[in-house]
Structures are given as C-alpha cells and as structure tokens.
Amino acid sequence: MKSKALRMNKCAILGASGHGKVIAELAELNGFKEIIFFDDRFPELMQLAHWPVKGSTADLLALVQEFDLVVVAIGRNSTRLQKLRLLQQTGAKLDPLVHPHATVSSYAKLGEGSVVMANAVINAFAAVGVGGIINTSATVDHDCVLADGVHISPGAHLAGGVCIGEQSWIGIGAQIKQLILIGNRVVVGAGATVIRDIPDFKTVVGTPAVVISH
Questions:
Q1: What is the bridge-based pairing of β-strands 139-140 and 121-122?
Q2: Strand, helix or coil at 78?
C-alpha cells in the first residue's frame, strides 16, 4: 500500500517532538513541500528544528481543511488516539503515511492516522487500526490484527495471527509468538518474548515474558 501523499503538498503535524521530527521527514519523503507543526505548548514553542510551530490543537482543528494531510505525532497512545478522534470529527485528511522503504502488502489494511517507518514490513491480510505506529524495522506478519492506538516499537516482531488490543505498546526488540492474544493497554517490555496470551492492563517483561504489574 502506497501513501496517498505523493499527490499532495501541505502537511500539518500535531506534536512538536522527536517523534514529530521523524514524521516530518517521512512527509517530505512522500513529496510534501510544506510542513507545519501544531503543539499545545504554542506560543512558548514556535520552532522545531527548521519547521515552524504555528498553533495549538484548537488552532489546527479550525484549519484542517487547509491541509492535504494531518498527522498526530504523539507517542503516548491514549493522547494520540484522543487527538485523532477529535480530528476525525472535523473531516481532516488522515491518510496513512508510509516510508518509501517500508514494505506493506497490498492485501494489508492501514487505519486512518497510522504511520509505517523505514524498513518495516506488514504482510498480507494484516490490519492496523486508527493511529497505529509500526516503527523502524518492525514486522507484522500475515493475519495480525492491531486495534486502534497500538505502537509496535523499532525492531519488534509479530508472528502470524497475533491480535493486539487498543492502546497497547510493544517495546523495542520484543517478539510475539504466532496466534497470541494481547489485551487492551498492555505494555510489553523491551526485548521480551511473549509466548502466552496477556490480559488487559498488564505489563510484561523478560524471556519468556512474565507479568510485573496489574
């Protein structure tokens, strides 16, 4: 699946952060010529690297029709999803944004506001929900289903048929065995190996992964 951004020009990014810098470059690689940030720290924050910060969330909500694409660049899953749902109500253009060096099957589905970073792979019949982040060199194998607001961190790998609940976070370098079910708002620690289902609201670490908090 290709990002539609190749036909577009003007991109708004909500969230002027390190993640926002990555999203801005990704938008440029997709052909956007004008990148404008919005952040709730405005007017204290008016610049991110060489990109301007021109307003807050409220300002963006009033201006969404001026932009060919709007991206929420907020790492915290709950906040990112909240902002996206506000933007959905305005008719903002929230097409997925895919790095040119990512591989996304034509049979995969990407939800509104999702981003796919460099060297990530999403295989056939996988589905990523609204506001998903598939980060650098992560892999999502066939028939995986990711609910809204899920973040798959750099170098994490999901085997086939994994299902992940809303707003869960899979840490850097984690591995998840095929057909595993992970609940809502689960945190999988860096480098963990998940071989059993995980209920809602748990944090797991280690190899094999064990629960450390409820």
A1: parallel
A2: helix
142 is catalytic: yes
Catalytic residue, candidates 99, 101, 142, 151: 142
Instruction: Retrieve residue 189's tokens.
Output: 């620690």
Residue 2 CB burial class (10 angstroms; 0-12, 13-18, ≥19):
exposed
Q: Model confidence over 145-170: pLDDT tens digits?
A: 999 999 999 999 999 999 999 999 99
Mean pLDDT, residues 64-81 taken together: 97
Tens-place pLDDT, residues 188-204? 999 999 999 999 999 99
97 phi and psi, to 5 degrees? -120, 120
- Other CB atoms within 10 A of residue 62 CB: 12
Starting at the edge strand that comes first in sequence, how are the strands of the sheet with 109-110 ordered?
Answer: 109-110, 127-128, 145-146, 163-164, 181-182
Nearest residue to 186 via CA among 150, 158, 162, 160:
150
| CA dist., res. 73 & res. 61, Å (int) | 15
